Amino acid sequence: MQLVSRIYEEDSISAVQELYHSNGWTDGLPIVPPTRDAVEACLEWVMMPPDQLIGIEPVRGLAITAEKLAINAVMAGCLPMHFPVVVAAWTAMMQEEFLMHGATASTGGCAVLVVLNGPIRLELGAGGTFNALGNSDRATAVIGRAIRLCLINLMDVRPGAIDRSTLGHPGKFSYCVAEDEEDTTWLPLAEQRGVPKGASSVTVMAAGAPRQLMNEWTTKPEEILETFAAEMRANLRHYSIHPGNYALIIPKQLREHLQAAGWTKTDIATFIHERARIHRREWAEVGKGAVVRDRGDSVYPAMESADQLLVVAAGGPAGGFGAVIPPWLGNKSHAVTLPLGVCIDCEPPNK
Amino acid sequence: MSFQVLDPTPEKAPPVGQLAPRLDTLEGKTIGFISNGKEGTKGFFRHLDQILREEYGVAQVVSRTKSNYSAPADPHIVAEIKNWHAVVSGLGD
After folding, report:
1. What's phi and psi for A278, nearest 5 deg?
2. H or E stretch including A324?
3. Is the ipTM of this complex over 0.90?
4. Beta-ladder partners of A86
5. A42-81 residues touching B, CB cutoff 8 A
6. Structural domain spans, chain A
7. Of A35, A150, B34, B43, most Cβ neighbours within 10 A?
8. Which of A15, A61, A106 sits opposite B14 (nearest CB)?
9. Taking the domains of chain B in order of start, what are their residue ranges?
């Protein structure tokens, strides 16, 4: 296999670490040395030659190749079996509607949320239960980290360089969750978004930090979802008015009340779309009176349409918690869902 | 134990645009502003407009604002650039 990347020879593991840290090639944490064997194993797993073009980053014209994705994936701790997800996620991120440059350069400081669906979750041991949005398991940890290392090293998305985030958030280390498809009656997110049943897939979203909520004092769907809607209204008031993709993470305890009442993801989205909206005049209550102007009666929904809501079944079995994951900047970036797979002589996605 | 490890960054630098030739003078020239539309651009470009006209003799300032402040300038704005002698593209934050 003909790799083109420059090779460095170091005489110890600590020397490798210092080489990568001193060149700004890490996220600050130790990396796995990307040796030729490890990188080639990733490429063989996805049956891609090193120079396979994953895409051209549209703003600065950067060519993204499979070899470079693989190097960064190995550094993040990926095994070959994790690499197809990294490739699919990056392919999704390079779709025009994701607006990757804007989303990764913005002062808004979002991260790329990756949601896994389909049988690959089980093959990888990707956990969608306990600690689903945290360090739940190896697979989601290293896949999420690979996304970030690729951004850092392939697009110079380094703090103060292309990454102009004011604050950022911890999801910029790793932000990947697997849906708990085995313990829900709901359609998986990817299927809801048009991927054939049973296909493994990724959904990427330019996402803010999770906003956790709690309501363990009711079993009524309307009351449970009102708490989610209230958290979204808070985001509309305190952060951004722009409508777009929001994700709701609904763990088992709350999910079971919704399922028992027969509520589907579509029902949830319809309810949320109706309730998650504010009047512009509410900004005056949170210190933003200067921008209310003469449009106080204007209504701002969190989403342009109900299908912009991404409902994900995930989280540990106990606890009346849930989370709202807000968009980076509304419709400036759209979530993208792509199935995984080997594609021979097929058209690029969405083209 | 020694390690042979690979460079994770691109071998080729991204293609970069070239700066247009510098103007000898701003006197009598038409200058375009491309704003991203953020709050901070208003005062910045207003002040710059005043300086260019009053101190540098600029004949005309054309102000345009992008429709999406996180995306490249709209094609119709880019198409206008050829009518200007120079462009100032500023960020609001």
Report:
1. -135, 165
2. strand A321-325
3. yes
4. none
5. 59-63, 68, 71-72, 75
6. 1-208+329-342, 210-326
7. A150
8. A61
9. 30-90
Which pLDDT band, with edges at 50, 70 and 90, does A351 fall under? very low
A11 touches chain B (CB under 8 A): yes
- Residue corresponding to tokens 């209550």: A285
Sheet holding B30-35, edge to edge: B60-65, B30-35, B86-90
Give yes or no for a contact between B70 and A102, defined as CB atoms under 8 angstroms apart. yes
Predicted structure pTM score: 0.93
SS3 content of chain A, % helix, strand, coil (to 5): 40, 20, 40
Residues A150, A219: Cα–Cα separation, whole Å: 43
Give the contacts of A126 (CB within 8 A, at least 6 positions apart).
A116, A120, A137, A139, A140, A143, A176, A178
Chain B residues 7-36 with a CB less than 8 Å from chain A? 7-12, 14-15
Structure token pair of residue A34? 């990307």
Contact (Cβ atoms closer than 8 angstroms) between residue A40 and residue A3 = yes
The verdict on a CB contact (< 8 Å) between B6 and A34 is yes
Average of per-residue pLDDT across A254-274:
98
Q: Could you tell me where the DSSP H helices lie in A53-116?
A: 66-76, 83-93, 100-105
